[in-house]
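Case study: Type II/IV secretion system protein.
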Amino acid sequence: MSLGELLVSDFGITPEDLNRAESYQTRFGGRVEQTLVNMGSLSDDQLPVLYAKFFNIPLIDLAEWEAAPALDIDKNTIAFLLENHWVPLAADGNHWILACQYPLDLSVNEWLIANNIDADVHIVGETEFQLLSSKYDTEQQEEASDEYLGDEEERLKELASEAPTVNLLNSLISKALRQGASDMHLEPYKGRYRARYRVDGVLHEAEVLSPRMQLPIVTRLKILSGMDIAEKRRPQDGKIEMKIANQDLDIRVSALPLNDGESMVLRFLRKDNVQYDMSVIGLSDDIEALVREDIKTTAGVVLLTGPTGSGKTTTLYTFLNALNNDDVKIITLEDPVEYQLPGINQVQVNSDIGFNFAAGLRSIVRQDPDIIMLGEIRDKETAQIALQSALTGHLVFSTVHTNDAASAYTRLLDLGVEEFLLNAALVSIVAQRLARKVCPKCTAEHPQQEELIAKYDLQSLAEKFNVETIKLRSGKGCDHCAHSGFKGRMAITEYLRCDDEIKVMAKDATFIPKAKAHNNSLARRTLLEDGLYKAILGLTTIDEVIRVAG
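Here is what the predicted structure looks like once written out:
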């Protein structure tokens, strides 16, 4: 199989892109795969796998070689190999074991022949190369640290713009995007610098980086995101706009000083991949029908509750998207505006100039909107304006931080909102969590199905909610889901409609249990029950439900 055929069959390269890259190679030289990387059609962290498959050379087993000591080899030889992205791992006379990024490097192969060296070769990526080569650069680190004393800022800028730094950061971001990560965490750990990805709400260790790369990576991120590279004592925030692997990205960057370095967190906002559709967020059919009724009302407040990261904003955007047409004016007030929605007026608060949620909401009401989305209700003033806006003919969406739906009442009362205002304005409250979905490619019957049915009394739940067959599933793990057994997330929800029964209830210490009992009498599920309901339909696992809603 030719390299081009392998790129098309195994790496998703289109024949059109391959033809463009080959045409460029004919005119200007270079390697086809590198041209594809430059075009954004192939990510550079896929190159090691490509070379391993095409040349039939094994990928490095980092666990085997990471702790191996540096070899006592002539410094000029080491410098020559490292300069060409080869690193020696072991040497026994003329038999050497080496790791390289590109095995057909002419100068290194000529050197091996000239020195009569029989080489076993392993393929490495940028991350592994930096980690393995770091054991040879103690002197370089000492020289660099001396240079910092003279002109630290210029030296940092130099380090940040060097090819190894640029390639490593691009490789980490490309890998995060391919795995569907929402965040990447870079932080010091046990004398190293590690990268972790948050995929479907759960952190996974992705790479362990060479400690020498910490400063260049942090500096490059600060430069790209507009931070002060000389400031290492205070937290900073910034934003990067870039294009990687044909994806336009907004990346929110946060820097936090630690006692042994800096923690950098990158949040990826991929506009092209976000779908604001009821079917995508995973509401159960009965809850979706109730919600659709609520959002079609002309006035009132619909609240979403849940902790940070439970998908409240995405669900609110989905509601707005369902209502977005030429007949209505929709204005949102957010902190910050993360995704742009066509046809919707989005406003970002700015506390530094006194433009907070309350001030922004007062201004929005004067703009004659039909629908208002308020990012969060944090204080009494904001809550009162939002509720009064509902009474004057506006449909208002917002969020509060509570554990379940009924607790939203007590939270708003604690802020100082009058009970009559709540009873008059609230339409419904939806509590939400996000649970990972079982990977559709490797789903299989759960091996402990009978034990779990008995342990959680799932038969009674199935009968209560008219489920004929219990189908507990679990993912075995495959390439599609990065061997996690899960792919994607869906909402687990508790719905509370603010009907006449709820309105007449006293909002005292007995309100929450009474509200839950009322919901139960209407055959509406709690958060845990909705999670278990989706587990017996085979959409998620019992363990995942207990993790997020138990």
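For the exam, be able to explain this: Residues 139-150 have pLDDT under 50 and may be disordered.
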